[in-house]
Design brief:
By secondary structure, the protein is mainly alpha-helical. The protein folds into two domains: about 140 residues, no CATH class; about 80 residues, no CATH class. It contains ten helices and no strands. Helix 4 packs antiparallel against helix 6. The longest helix has about 40 residues.
Length: about 220
């Protein structure tokens, strides 16, 4: 008799988990190319190397709240869920087509929130609010948010011909397709400047921040 019950329960278990398997395969097909691109690019950078950890933590948080989705929903939010899913797919397609990695990665939030709303409604979304919010740390911030600049400097007594030669080599590398592609992934803007232009920019930056420090009486903490 136990064997009969086990055989009868097996199709029920398969029927219950089959939609989730299809959903998982669909999400994998959608975002696997994104993860491969990140693994080959941004995730190799120390500033974004936490990406896989964030994904693993989200997976654990989502699994911990799985009961909110497995339980039959009294009122699934079809309209808001469909709208959120559609927005997420548009962000994904636009980010993928234009090479805008932050937008492509940010599409996780509306896509997953839309699926949660379609399956479990707003009660399930409240249960998953922390897990979805945690995904914000997955989004790589572009250069205009992480405001910093980098340049190559030489000692003050360096002969001008050597400075000009170094500058020409740097500008040549900056114009390479591979360099520009990498800079775009990092949200970095490359400047094709001469030594004089770079010198003026550095002096202006120094004066700007020096004035800010003086005007606000900023001092080093001991």
């Amino acid at each position: 008799m136990n064997a009969v019950l086990e055989q009868r329960g097996l199709p029920d278990a398969r029927a219950r988990w089959q939609p989730w398997l299809l959903l998982a395969l669909g999400l994998a097909a959608l975002y696997l190319p994104t993860y491969v691109s990140l693994a080959r690019g941004l995730w190799r950078d120390d500033a974004y190397a936490h990406g896989p950890i964030i994904l693993g933590a989200f997976a654990w948080l989502a699994w911990r709240e799985r009961a909110a989705l497995l339980a039959p929903a009294d009122r699934p939010a079809i309209g808001p869920g469909a709208a959120s899913l559609a927005l997420g797919l548009l962000l994904y397609i636009g980010g993928r087509a234009l090479g805008l990695v932050p937008i492509e990665v940010a599409s996780h939030l509306p896509v997953l929130a839309g699926l949660v709303l379609l399956i479990g409604g707003f009660p399930a979304l409240r249960r998953y609010a922390f897990a979805l919010g945690f995904l914000l740390f997955l989004i790589p911030l572009p250069g205009f948010i992480l405001d910093a600049w980098f340049a190559m400097f030489a000692p003050a007594a360096t002969p001008q011909p050597i400075v000009d030669k170094l500058n020409a080599a740097m500008r040549k590398v900056a114009k390479m397709d591979s360099t520009r592609e990498r800079a775009n992934q990092l949200g970095t803007v490359l400047k094709d400047w001469s030594p004089a232009e770079m010198d003026k920019f550095a002096r202006d930056e120094g004066e700007t921040w020096s004035r800010l420090i003086r005007d606000n009486n900023i001092t080093m903490a001991e």
